[in-house]
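Incident log, entry 3
Record: UDP-glucuronosyl/UDP-glucosyltransferase (409 residues)
Problem: checksum mismatch between cached and fresh output.
Input:
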Amino acid sequence: MATNLHMLIIPLMCPGHLIPMVDMAKLLAQQSVTVTIVITPRNAERYGSVLDRAIASGLPIHIFQLRFPTTENGLPNGCESIDDLPTFSLAKNFYGASAMLQKPLEDGFNELKPRPSCIISDKHLSWTADVAEKFQLPWVIFDGMSCFTQLATHNLCVSKVHEHMAESEPFVLPGLPDKITMTKSQLPLLFNSGNSARGKELNSIREKIRATELGAYGIIINSFEELEKRYIDEYRKIKQGRVWCIGPFSNSNKNDLDKAQRGSNEPINNHYCLKWLDSQHKSSVIYACLGSLTRLTPPQFIELALGLEDSKIPFILVVRGGSRTDEIEKWLVEDGYENRLKGRGVLVRGWAPQVLILSHSAVGAFLTHCGRALGLSHKQKMAMKCVQDRYMIYNYCWDNKREHSKTPE
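Fresh output:
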């Protein structure tokens, strides 16, 4: 049934944020809602294949391209996504460049037909609240994590219980349906940014984002009722019911081509790791990918790689070290790591077709940047112990913001 609704979607230019919002655009358009997604030229090229196919299928999706002001903000030319940053010390510059999209968006707003009914933006783009206010539209924010995260964050901000705790002192997260114990050092940087100038600078950005998002009309979360119903119920009480969990957004990709190009326009239908998975037993493979932004130091990568090797279980490991990738590749050659795998392990460089990998019947465990392995049987959990034993020292290192110059034995 046709509607007069028109949603203006404004994502943060970062794979973990933009990809689900592209998926959300497709989900909304499948309900006959007109959708316009704001995107920059480089990202339009990167995600354009999926969007173009959706448009060609008849879905009412429009693309509104805006030039990303890189050089004006001290960013390399073509750096239009957070994962393009050569160093995260330029994160402030990137957020500054994102905020400069406000004026060209407002200048082109009247070109959008029909007039947008509301704005759905990533919660990290606080300037979009001003756009919504200027054009008198409801402002709805998007969060890609969970109601658990939102509820825990809200309760900590209100109670401030963590402020009276030592770094390693356990305490119970307040106001949750379950008893969950953490230490201050394990909290997100919003609550534990440290005393460095960069930490304080980034925390001021996070505090501004937090303060602005409290004024949103509502929030869309990439979650679903069966996953965390009690947390959804509690969070809806705080938000007067305006919490919509319409995930998982990846379900909007119905064919293998859309799944393969989710986050990349590269032709990877015949990706070698997928062919290798076809030769493995059901639920036998560990998939280790720490996200598009996580950049392991060489010692961290070495420990993870050796832990996977010691597990004696088939695995796929995504190699991503940012500016330190050359050092990691040098170790791989000198150590003879790939040669020792002999078909039991696969290294993936560049973008991995993650949805296709995770949906493959051979994958039985997912090790990701939260240090979690999802959906494991008891046997698989025991097999993962060697990986976790090697990996836990670096979880400890990251949590406590310490650096180790020597790889532990």
